[in-house]
């Protein structure tokens, strides 16, 4: 017990020595020679006492009073300690360490879409019927473990449900939305998609992240028997329920759906996409191999431009299908590299067999039916595991390997069956 107390006293003496050294380091150019000498004496004496195994509490208290007086006289803002002087430096060092780890070793990345499903899950939804929604007590647990955020649209008016649509060429259609400014975590500015649902003459809205596409959500809720919005338009166009407004806009009345004020029109949970760590370190020493799940930036990809020709600079995750010199072909549902079935990852095999939820590769674009493509010597060619719903190199070609950020390493959230090493 006595030895433990003595270590405590020696530690306190060491703290005085460290504080005197800190004042000398930060304020030497502002101090007179006498002050520098006095602080150096405190530093050296306190350091000597911190090594004294015979130090007693009375000795420490007797000398500490003089040390403290010297530090107060010459310490400026450094001594006595305050919350900010004591912790700001710690916060800054911690921030630098975190940024350094993120820049050179591990970078967190959240999967925004389902282009890599079922390997990785992007944002997805779960629709609830009346009475089936999770209880209020359960919602915090769903948020904690699954990243689930509850959304509910209540009828403000009385009458049938109508949906605003944007009509495209060739019978295409999708629910209309607006981009609005919102907040992430309550204070970080973030753009949101706002969808509208009319009940009678009143309109209710719900907002989702800009990366989430609610087309399928609304179709599954109001037209579950249809496989696409084009099919919905074909089925409803002759019924008089489709009101065309011109300019590619329309309102569609949902058959059999009518509500009273306060009734729930739509209730769903939006679940977070997989959050994973990206290994930014290994590719400095080893070359990416076909089959690796890689994260890269899209800003330099010529085939990926915005509506005004501007670069679209985002982080994407896809699977490396081929590198320089590889010849790639899709014989649906399988990918072939250099005339042989692609190897290097279980996703290639499962897509080829269309098992375990993998839909198989779809021959389109640069890998259209009957077409082979040889990856240039300085290029990477990538594909999504969910080929029918992936925007990948089939549409914008190869990209420069220098735009690769790293390899998907570990799924750390949510705590689902995919938690663990990324593959």
Strand content: 25-35%
Task: Please state the CA-atom Rg, rounded to the nearest Å.
Answer: 31 Å
Give me the secondary-structure category.
alpha+beta
Biggest sheet overview: 7 strands, antiparallel
Count helical runs. 9
Distance between the termini: 53 Å
Low-confidence stretches: none
Tell me the helix content: 25-40%
Number of strands: 21
Shape call: extended
Structure keywords:
423 residues, alpha+beta, Umud Fragment, subunit A, 3 domains, seven-stranded antiparallel beta sheet
3D architecture notes:
The structure is a single chain. This protein is 28% helix and 30% strand. The protein folds into three domains: 2-81; 124-271, no CATH class; 275-421, Umud Fragment, subunit A, CATH 2.10.109. The chain starts with a helix and ends with a strand. With 423 residues, the chain is α+β, with helices and mostly antiparallel strands. It contains nine helices and 21 strands. The strands form four sheets. Strands 1, 12, 13, 14, 19, 20 and 21 form a seven-stranded antiparallel sheet that branches. Helix 1 (2-27) packs antiparallel against helix 2 (33-50), helix 1 (2-27) runs parallel beside helix 3 and helix 2 (33-50) runs antiparallel to helix 3.
Short synopsis of the structure:
The protein is of the alpha+beta class and 423 residues long. The protein is 28% helix and 30% strand.
What secondary-structure arrangement, pairings included, does this model have?
Blueprint: H1 2-27, H2 33-50, H3 57-74, H4 83-104, E1 106-110, E2 124-127, H5 139-146, E3 149-154, E4 159-167, E5 173-175, E6 177-184, E7 188-199, E8 202-209, H6 215-222, H7 229-236, E9 242-246, E10 249-259, E11 264-271, E12 275-279, E13 293-297, E14 315-323, E15 327-331, E16 334-337, E17 340-341, H8 346-353, E18 372-374, E19 380-383, H9 393-396, E20 404-413, E21 420-421
Antiparallel strand pairs: 1-12, 2-11, 3-11, 4-5, 4-7, 4-10, 6-7, 7-8, 9-10, 12-20, 13-14, 13-20, 14-19, 15-16, 15-18, 16-17, 20-21
């Amino acid at each position: 017990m006595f030895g433990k107390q003595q270590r405590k006293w020696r530690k306190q003496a060491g703290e005085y020595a460290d504080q005197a050294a800190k004042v000398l380091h930060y304020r030497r150019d502002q101090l007179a020679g006498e002050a520098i000498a006095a602080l150096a004496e405190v530093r050296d004496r306190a350091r000597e006492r911190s090594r004294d195994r015979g130090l007693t509490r009375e000795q420490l208290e007797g000398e500490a009073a003089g040390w403290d007086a010297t530090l107060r006289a010459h310490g400026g803002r450094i001594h006595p300690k305050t919350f900010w002087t004591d912790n700001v430096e710690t916060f800054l060092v911690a921030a630098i360490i975190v940024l350094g780890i993120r820049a050179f070793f591990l970078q967190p990345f959240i999967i925004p879409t389902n282009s890599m499903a079922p390997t990785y899950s992007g944002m997805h939804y779960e629709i609830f019927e009346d009475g089936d929604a999770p209880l209020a007590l359960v919602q915090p647990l769903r948020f904690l473990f699954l990243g689930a955020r509850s959304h509910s649209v209540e009828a403000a008016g009385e009458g049938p449900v109508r949906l605003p649509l944007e009509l495209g060429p060739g019978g295409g259609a999708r629910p209309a939305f607006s981009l609005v400014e919102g907040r992430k975590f309550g204070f970080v500015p973030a753009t949101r998609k706002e969808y509208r649902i009319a009940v009678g003459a009143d309109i209710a809205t719900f907002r989702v992240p800009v990366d989430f596409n609610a087309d399928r959500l609304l179709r599954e809720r109001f037209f579950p028997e249809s496989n696409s919005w084009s099919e919905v338009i074909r089925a409803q166009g002759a019924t008089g329920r489709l009101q065309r407004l011109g300019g590619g806009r329309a309102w569609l009345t949902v058959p059999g759906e009518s509500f009273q004020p306060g009734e729930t029109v739509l209730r769903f949970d939006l679940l977070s996409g997989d959050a994973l760590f990206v290994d930014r370190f290994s590719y400095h020493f080893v070359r990416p191999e076909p089959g690796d799940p890689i994260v890269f930036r899209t800003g330099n990809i010529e085939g990926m431009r915005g509506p005004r020709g501007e670069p679209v600079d985002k982080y994407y995750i896809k699977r490396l299908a081929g590198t320089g010199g590889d010849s790639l072909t899709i014989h649906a549902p399988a990918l072939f590299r250099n005339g042989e079935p692609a190897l290097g990852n279980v996703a290639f095999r499962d897509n080829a067999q269309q098992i375990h939820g993998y839909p198989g590769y779809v021959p389109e674009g640069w890998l259209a039916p009957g077409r082979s493509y040889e990856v240039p010597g300085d290029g990477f060619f990538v594909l999504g595991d969910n080929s029918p719903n992936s925007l990948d190199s089939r549409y914008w070609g190869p990209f420069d390997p220098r735009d690769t950020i790293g390899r998907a390493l570990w799924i750390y959230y949510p705590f689902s069956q995919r938690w663990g090493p990324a593959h």
